[in-house]
Structure formats: structure tokens, C-alpha cells
UniProtKB/TrEMBL annotation:
The lineage of its organism: Bacteria, Bacillati, Bacillota, Clostridia, Thermoanaerobacterales. Its cofactor is (R)-lipoate. Belongs to the GcvH family. The gene is gcvH. Residues 22-103 form the Lipoyl-binding domain. This is Glycine cleavage system H protein. SUPFAM superfamilies: Single hybrid motif (SSF51230). It holds the Pfam family GCV_H. Binds 1 lipoyl cofactor covalently.
Amino acid sequence: MKVLEDLYYSKDHVWVKVEGNKAYIGITDYAQDSLGDAEYIELPEVGTEFTAGDVLGVIESAKAASDVYIPVDGEVIEVNNAVAEDPSLVNSDPYGSWLVAVRLKDKAQVEKLMKAEEYKKFLEE
């Protein structure tokens, strides 16, 4: 499984890339592999506010439907419509195919997420 060094990871197999007070959020290579071929992705609208642990959206595949849990508090400021229109993008490029960008409410929450090495160990457990 591919794990990128410059991202943060949650135990729910969601990655976070921070740029200032903005965070891009997507699913990991492990998550997309476990789900199988994504057929449908439901994402929130811009302006929706979330608390860490809330369901951000849903990804459906032939195997299953899976909730995506947001690992940080934030307000959605961008939605990646490309993945909603072509869900297979999360399979072919899980780290390039972010789902939403949020304005972080508490940047300190990001530091509580796993870094790449911790996430790799978590996957081995």
C-alpha cells in the first residue's frame, strides 16, 4: 500500500493535506483497495460545517457502501466535483483525488493524526 510522507492519516483511512488554514481530505490507498471499484460518491455542499468524527460523505462500490469520517473540525470551502462525476479517480489516484477542502477550525487537531510512519505501523497491525 502506498503511504505518502507529507500527509496526516486517521484510523478511518482518511488522509489530510494541510495548506495554511485549509485542509484537503481524501481516502487512502488502503481504503480504496478495501472498497474496490468506486461507483458513486456522495459529497457535502460548500458551507457545510463538520465536527471531527462526523460522516463527511459516502463512497459506494460493487462490494459495499462506506461512510467517510472527517478527522478534523471544519467548514467545507471546496468540493471536488471531478470525483463525484468519475468515482474511479479515487481508485486510480487516491492521493491526487481529494474529496473536499475545509477551512480548519482547530489546526492542533491535525497534529493528533498519524504521520506516515505511524500509519504504516497501524496498517501492519
